[in-house]
């Protein structure tokens, strides 16, 4: 049982590692171009980025959704406690192990429920980006992740990230 769990974890790790991207576009893989002509002498990367631009405006968008403050944590705790108890009882755990699993499930469920509630009821941001090719796009996302106006960013999979 444990070997199967370890194998599944290793496969998942390898699959996620395959999704990683390089930090940027390198200029040396194409040989010639402007980089050899002295245009890139300051150590800056002047390569054209099709999905990069400058943030011109950030607007906060209220979600309009509300819920009592501890609803997510309470519901998540209940679901986590039941799930932990059931998993432990079906895998042959003793009563003591079932109680420990229920407590651990309750704690994990409360954290997850609280985070889910924040994602559902929290504000989001409309981030306006003037792309390098002149287009202007607006992306709505939950967190800014250090993004401010006049920062150079990249739009990846519908999200604005720092470049």
TrEMBL record:
The places in or outside the cell where this protein is found are: Membrane
Keyword Ribonucleoprotein annotated: no
> Record's GO cellular component, any one?
outer membrane
Main subcellular localisation: membrane
Keyword Lipoprotein, does the record have it? yes
Transmembrane residue ranges: none
Q: Which UniProt keywords apply?
A: Lipoprotein, Membrane
Under InterPro entries, the record lists: Bact_OM_lipoprot/Surf_antigen (IPR051407), Gly_zipper_2TM_dom (IPR008816)
Q: Kindly give the PANTHER family that the UniProt entry links to this protein.
A: OUTER MEMBRANE LIPOPROTEIN (PTHR35603:SF2), PTHR35603
Q: What is the name of the protein in this document?
A: Peptidoglycan-associated outer membrane lipoprotein
């Amino acid at each position: 049982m444990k070997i199967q769990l370890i194998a599944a974890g290793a496969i998942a790790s390898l699959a996620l590692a395959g999704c990683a991207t390089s930090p940027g576009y390198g200029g040396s893989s194409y040989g010639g171009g402007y980089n050899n002509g002295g245009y890139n002498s300051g150590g800056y990367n002047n390569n054209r980025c099709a999905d990069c631009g400058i943030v011109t405006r950030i607007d906060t968008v209220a979600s309009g959704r509300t819920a009592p403050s501890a609803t997510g944590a309470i519901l998540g705790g209940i679901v986590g406690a039941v799930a932990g108890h059931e998993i432990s009882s079906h895998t042959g755990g003793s009563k003591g192990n079932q109680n420990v699993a229920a407590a651990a499930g309750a704690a994990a469920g409360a954290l997850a429920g609280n985070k889910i509630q924040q994602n559902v009821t929290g504000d989001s941001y409309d981030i306006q980006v003037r792309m390098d090719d002149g287009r202007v796009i607006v992306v709505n996302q939950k967190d800014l992740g250090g993004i401010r106006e006049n920062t150079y960013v990249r739009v990846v999979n519908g999200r604005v990230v720092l470049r």
